[in-house]
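User: ARB-07466-like C-terminal domain-containing protein, Kribbella pittospori:
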Amino acid sequence: MFDERDVGRGFLAVASKSVYVKGAVALVVVGIVSLLMVAPFGGTTQPQAACLPLPPGQAGGPVPAGWIHKSQQDFAKLIDQVAIERGLPGKATLIALMTALVESNLQNLSYGDADSVGLFQQRPAAGWGTVAQIMDPHYAADAFFGGSAAPNPPGLVDINGWPTMPLGDVAQAVQVSAFPDRYALREQEARQIASEAGIDLTRAGNPYAGRSGAPPPGSANEGVLDDDDCGGQGGGLVENGPINGVWPEQTASVTDPSGTGGMVTPRTAAWIAEARNNLGTLSMSCWDAHVWNPTSDHPRGKACDVMVGADARKSAPARVRGDQIANWAVKTAAQTGVHYVIWYGKIWSARRGTWIPYNGGGVYNPTDATGGHFDHVHVSMF
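Assistant: Predicted structure for ARB-07466-like C-terminal domain-containing protein:
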């Protein structure tokens, strides 16, 4: 394919032979550039991204300006409108924008790798639809979101638990890209474009709107936090609201089921049993002397550290597992007596009911894998 630079070079090579031809060339180039600046929704032909700062999928290049940036905002509004029509939350729009930035720089391309075309570079050969269908931005966005009326490839709403998964992992689950790490890199750019386009990414909605059959168990209580409230980390944590139950004080009188040899409270022992029943095999340690922090709940038998197997900042599976553990602890706090949870640089309190940044409590280095709780989920009991 070519862009206005290619056209200009070709004409200027001929124009060097005559001053009169130069004048004509200038008019021709201006005319061609004008045609390329057609609004993204006009006519039957679709615009192609010209002068992309970097190949699609790469972050860190100059932000497009002028008509390209304006068209990005227009396409962002269209994608969000489809999400609104579907009844989907703002988080669905954010993931779609991140994906389109990676795949096409948020432009409706009529070309791509193999037979990929459109905003999301969907492939006719993969069942996303015909070229004409995919080149319709409304159709392409609806297909990306998925559901019973969408093409065969699974879309966003077809992914169980997507609201609590890292944003980039959700995009990858839909796109099945050979470069899965690129999506998360475009989150802040997507947020900026959404802000400029007046899109509310905090909008509530049904995360499985349009899905055929029943939504996955527990989805009605997912209560997804907007990622702005999670430090922009791109994680998926649930709030669950404040809990006002009364929990009588208990002493450590039960042998620690996690095998430390210490003693824990009956409430902690009961939580360990429930966690194992609901979360499967867990690597955890509860009682600990914690001589460096005598105010900790560990020596009182009122806390457990559940390991996720790696630094979740460097391991997507560890991040997903940690989110799963933390979300379960939060959702069941009213029944189990969870006081607070610390995970991935954030802390949730039953009295507050929301996640806020964790500063280490004056004892731990919050940037460290262990101090910031990036390699384990800390759960304290009343």
